[in-house]
Amino acid sequence: MIDPSSALGDVPRAIQLALAPVFLLTGIAGMLNVMASRLARIIDRGRKLTEGQPPPVAEPYLTLELQTLERRRRFAGAAITACASAALLVCTVIAALFVEVYLQISLRGLVGLLFTAATLALLVGLAYFLREVHLATQTVRITLKRPH
Fold first, then answer.
1. Residue 84: C-alpha distances to residues 15, 98, 120 (Å)
2. What sign has the CA pseudo-torsion 90, 24, 29, 134?
3. What gap in Å lies between CA 76 and CA 71, rounded to an integer?
4. Top-confidence residue, 1 or 19
5. Which of 34-63 are b and which e, b meaning 16 or more Cβ less than 10 Å from the residue's Cβ?
6. Over 60: is that where the pLDDT of 2 sits?
7. Quick check: 28 and 122 in contact, CB under 8 A?
8. pLDDT value of position 140
9. How many other C-beta atoms are found inside a 10 Å radius of the C-beta of residue 104?
10. Residue 32 has what pLDDT?
C-alpha cells in the first residue's frame, strides 16, 4: 500500500522536475501565438483577393498569389499542428512526473520517450514555420514609387 505522507514529501521534487517542461510549454505557447497570427493574416489576404472587388492586378499574378497563399496556409497549419502536439506531449510529461511521485513507480522511460517526442514535434513545427516564412519572403512584392 502507498504511504501518502512519503508521496507528498516528494511533491516539491516533482515540481522541480516539472519546472523545465513548464518553461518549454511557455515558449511553445508564444510560438503558437506568432504562428496563429501569421495564419490569420494569410487567410485575411486570401479573402481580400477572392471576395468583393477584384484587385487591380493581372489575372496570372492573382492566380499565382492565391496559389502561394494556399501553400503558406498549409505550411502554417502544419506548423501549428506540430507545435500544438509538442505542447500536448509536454503536458503529458508534466503529468507523468506527478503520477510517478504519487504512485511511487518509475516512469523515467515513458517520460524520456514523451519528452523526445515533444522535442521532435517542436522541431517539425519550427521547420514548417521556417518554410512558411521563407515562402512569404520569396514572394513578397514591394514596389517603390520614385519621385519625379
1. 23, 22, 12
2. negative
3. 9
4. 19
5. ebeebbeebeebbeebeeeeeeeeeeeeee
6. no
7. yes
8. 73
9. 12
10. 97
What SS3 class is residue 55?
Answer: coil
pTM of the predicted structure, to 2 decimals: 0.81
b/e per residue, 120-132, with b = 16+ CB within 10 A? ebbebbbebbebb
34-39, Cβ contacts within 8 angstroms, sequence gap of 24 or more:
35/76, 35/79, 35/80, 35/83, 35/125, 35/129, 36/80, 38/76, 38/132, 38/133, 38/136, 39/73, 39/76, 39/77, 39/80
- Return the C-alpha cell found at 147: 519621385
Q: Whole-number mean pLDDT of the chain?
A: 87
Q: pLDDT band at residue 131, thresholds of 50, 70 and 90?
A: very high
